[in-house]
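User: Good morning. I'm curious how cytidine-5'-monophosphate would be positioned relative to this chain. Could you predict the structure with it bound?
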Amino acid sequence: HSIPVIAIDGPTASGKGTVAHRVADKLGFHYLDSGALYRLTALSALRRGTDLADEHALAKLAEHLPCSFTGGNVILSHENVSDAIRAELVGNTASKIAALPSVRHALVGLQLGFRKAPGLVADGRDMGTVIFPHAPLKVFLTASVAARAERRYKQLIDKGIPANMEDLLMDLQARDDRDTHRAIAPLVPAEGAHVLDTSHMNADQAVDEVLKWYAAAM
Ligand code: C5P
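Assistant: Good morning! Here's the predicted structure, ligand included:
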């Protein structure tokens, strides 16, 4: 495959969304926020009242997601759901249904379709391990639970949303635990991935590091 992919995986609130987005901007590449696809599936299921134990029904929803990504917005059946998919309930539901093999399988084709010239930066949990295993650059972006909780706390407070540090820590740990220990596509650094711990780094420093690795890989 000649279209380059930069696969960036990592845990919740590791800053990979921000970093992946900026790297894509700098290189003029397309950007895939794969977590948004799990969140969209979760949002659809919650709204329709789909039984969250009905793997078949959830996979069907995922397979036929009427979604599009335009101008940085996430659209579901003509509705801008960019904010709605960021709700904590949607994120938690996403992380639960993401453990279902049929749901993951149903979203593969959609994700592969994002690989378009001149290149793609893909952000998620299994970009380097499952979806784009031959990506010329794989990055595993991480940070301590404390650093990630603090970032999430700041984000929420900045948005005027009340937040509680203890709840955030517990929630992060629960989600890490689910993503890391699930049987299918668990969150682990891909073979050959560069591991970047951003606990003591800002986003620009992380972006520079990724761009350096990319230049060296090409
Ligand atoms: O990255 P984000 O927090 O938006 O992802 C929401 C949830 O979707 C994650 O907690 C994870 O369980 C799941 N996910 C996944 N594989 C991906 C991206 C996200 O399982 N590639």
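The chain has one domain: 5-217. The pocket of cytidine-5'-monophosphate is lined by residues 12, 34-35, 38-39, 91, 94-95, 98, 124-126, 175, 179 (CB under 6 Å).
Let me know if you'd like a different ligand tried.
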